[in-house]
Design brief:
Blueprint (H helix, E strand, L loop, with lengths): L2 H31 L9 H8 L4 H20 L2 H28 L8 E3 L1 H15 L4 H14 L9 H4 L5 H9 L1 E4 L6 E4 L6 H14 L4 H25 L15 H6 L8 H19 L4 H11 L2
Parallel strand pairs: 1-3
Antiparallel strand pairs: 2-3
Helix pairs in contact: 1-3, 1-12, 1-13, 3-4, 3-5, 3-9, 4-5, 5-9, 6-9, 10-12
Amino acid sequence: MTSTETAKSRIASLDIIRGLVMVLMAIDHVRVFSGVPPGGPTPGVFFTRWITNFCAPAFVFLAGTAAYLHGQKLGSRSALARFLAVRGLWLVLLELTVIRLGWTFNLDFAHYLLAGVIWMLGWCMILLAGLVYLPLPVLVTIGAVIVGGHNLLDGRLQPEALQASPWAWLWQLLYLGGPIFLGAGGPPLIVLYVLIPWMGVMVLGYGFGAVMRWEQPRRHRFCLGVGGAAIGLFLLLRATNLYGDPRPWGGGPMPPALAFLNTTKYPASLLFLLMTLGPMLLAVPLLEQARGWIVDRLAVFGRTP
């Protein structure tokens, strides 16, 4: 395979994943608007929600990957930083205006604002704009520490204890979520997606962009090795309830098999990310060889900004 063909296959595999994620996201949004609650206890409802858990991790991770690859085209870290900062600000603005309208179908901006996944993507891009000047190994180490270590905060950050702190709003943006009141009489900002650990996911995705420039055999070994290790670590930590998710499984009303997979998304726990990013990495080598009309149509969705 020539280098040109390899580049095309890399881009195609990422486009296919993004396209598949958009299809899955549509399934979850149909569930939301139809009034079906997320989760169990019935397997049908549970897995309708569970399969869509792959959407946010894939979008955030691959946004980082796309940022790295775009930076290689630009040839300048300062140009990439400007691109990320401007795009991030646009995403934040769209989340607070157009996207909020699409979710709520009302113009009642005086009573609440929504900070969802597009808000989070925007701010992560803005933060990444400042981090791209760091050496890549340092940047990847930061991402790994955030993703792997943020669950150490579980039980240590109590929203009630932070209410009197002038920095309570910052902790809500970073990790706790919930309503932030914007001054006396101002509309509350409902934070659904916090910046930790998603910033770590985007940074790791940025590092993965360098992997996508490797020759195919080395790239495939990496994806299969790291993806398989992530799934194995998830199974080990989840089975033992040792670390990585504030919500242990077993002993509750949910069937054990469903409870085992019912990891925490808000904020996304280490086990949630291992459970979703591991299979995504395994899919990259497989999708580089995928052909057919379904794949072509998924790639069209994935190429759409």
